[in-house]
Structures are given as C-alpha cells and as structure tokens.
TrEMBL record:
Domain of life: Eukaryota
Family designation: Belongs to the MCMBP family.
Protein's UniProt name: Mini-chromosome maintenance complex-binding protein
A Pfam match: MCM_bind
InterPro entries attached to this UniProt entry: MCM_complex-bd (IPR019140)
Organism annotation: Anopheles coluzzii
Keyword entries, A-Z: Nucleus
Amino acid sequence: MDEFVDDVSEHQATHPPPSLIPRLHAVSVRKLPHTNPLLLRGLPSSDACAETTYKDLHNLLTQCLFGDGVAADYLLCHLVSSVYIRDEVECRGQFCLNLSNIPAEVLPGYTRSLYELLELLLPASHYLPMTLDNMNTLQFAPKKDYKTNKLTSGILQLAPHTHLVLDETRLEAGKLESAGVEAVKHVAHLIKAQRLKYDFQFYQLDFNTDVPVLVLSEGKSMLPSNCYLPIVPDLDAIKLIDETIKAGRHYVAPKLDGMRRFLTCARVRPFDMKTLDPTVVQDDFVRMRTENSAVTMDDLHALFVLARLLGLSRGRTALHRDDWERAKALEGERRNRMELFSKRKSEP
C-alpha cells in the first residue's frame, strides 16, 4: 500500500494537473521571430512612415531623458538590439546600456515612470528594483529541486527579447549575503555572454538567452555593460520631468501601434553590413590606433554594432556611411562624458 501511495505521489509530482500547469494543445505550430501581435501576418516590405516614426520616438525619449538627445540615441539603439551572431566563445549584437547620473531629486519615482513608458512600446519587458532584499532573497537562476524532481524557475529565466530593466538606484547601503553575491554573478554573466546558468546543484549548465538589459543608476553601475553613458540633464527638464513623462504618454497614445511595429521590425529585419566601403573602416581604425594605442579590435566591433543599431533605428536595411559617422561621433561624445564624470568624481 505504501509503495502504491509513493508511486501516486511521484506521478503527481512529475505530472501536475492542468489546474496547476495549464496545457496548450496545438494542431499546427509556426514559430515567429517576435512576439508582437501587430505583425502576425509578417514583416512589411517597406515602411513609408519609418523616418517620421523614428523622429517621434527620438523626440519622446529625448524629452523623457531630461532633454539629452545623445542618451535618446543610445536608448533607441538598445530598444532594437538583439544577438545576431553567436558561437561557442562569444556573441555579437547584445547592447546592455547603463544610463547613469540620474538626478537624485527625481528618485525613486522617475525610474519606475520611465520603465512604464518603455513598457508601452515593447511587447515584453520586466522591471527589477535592485533592493538589498530582492538581491538577497529572490532566486535569479533556475535551480533543480531533487525532492520534487522539478526545475524551479528564476527571475532571469525570461522569454527571448524580453527587455530587462534593472533599477540600481534602489540599492541601499547594507550587506549583500552570499545569495546576493550569486545573484550579481548571474546577472553579470547574462549581460556579458547572453547565457544563463541553470543550477543542477552538482553542476551548472549554460543556456543561451537574448535578453536586452538596461541598467539605471546614479553612478556607474557595479554590473558590466556594453555601453556606459552618463546622462547630461537640462536643469529645467529636471523640474518638469513628471509632467513631461505624463505628456509623453498622451503624445504616444495615438501613435503606439506604429511605434510598436517599427521597433519590432527594426529588431528582426535582415541588415546588410557589407555595404560600407572597407577602406573607410580601415582608415578610421588606423587613425583610432594612432590617436590611442589602447584601441583594440573589440572596440572596432563595438563601433560596428553601434553603427548597425543606428541604421536599424532609422528603419534601414543596410549600413550607410552616415550611420558609421554618427556612431563615431556618439562614441566620441560618450568618451568625453566618461572622462568628465571621472574627473568630477576624483575631485575633493
């Protein structure tokens, strides 16, 4: 009798009823490259409103980022980013963005308001305030429970192309416990490799992900990133930011469907990187190396990724010379800001 009860219990554990885990039976399945219900009939061959939609999005993000157009450029690139090359060693295309120097006087409400605006534009997103309690208590990576013989989910176990917004401005003074340290390691690994470690207790397995990560912080984040950008806010914009974001929500309401389609199409549309004259890239790389011997091939790859994203964010299907020039200009401005904020931090 006991053996029968054990068998029933084991069967219930491995085959839970539909009331606990719903089943979906399908006669035919077609995998889509996106989760946008506005594009179920496929991607449009062209978009006559692409330039207008780009300008609307750029203007919206500029206003919601305290009038910082450079930050809007980078955020728009982040919104259309995805992994497009992956091998056993590395992947290309991910664009983790760390926006810092968020004015203290608008916290903590601003970061949540900004996320809610981005949430309107994206098919899938997740907001995680990095409080000490969350870091120390939440399970970030999936873990095998051998008692129930099931894999318990982690909060980083997200569907492909789910935008993860990490709010580091919520991190208060205190101690990260061992679980919190492991959580930081899991997030850092996700950002750098776009892989998530599944914990089977006796060993760990890496599973590929494609989760764009946006980190919002006051200073430079403790997490790694592909792009660190201090925001340069307009003083008047700081005072009016609550009203600006509210106005932004009203502004996008009649244009939401077009913006949502535009961002999804930009992310999944094929893009030709070979249209740029190789001699232009070669000459620029030589000049960069001459000006700064620390420049490496990784820096060149990062510039290519940014130029590609700038082209995609304009609704293009091939890399133009002005995308390349714009990428160089943006990176120059970003480095200048990093040096400026580094000097400010070192001043007594």
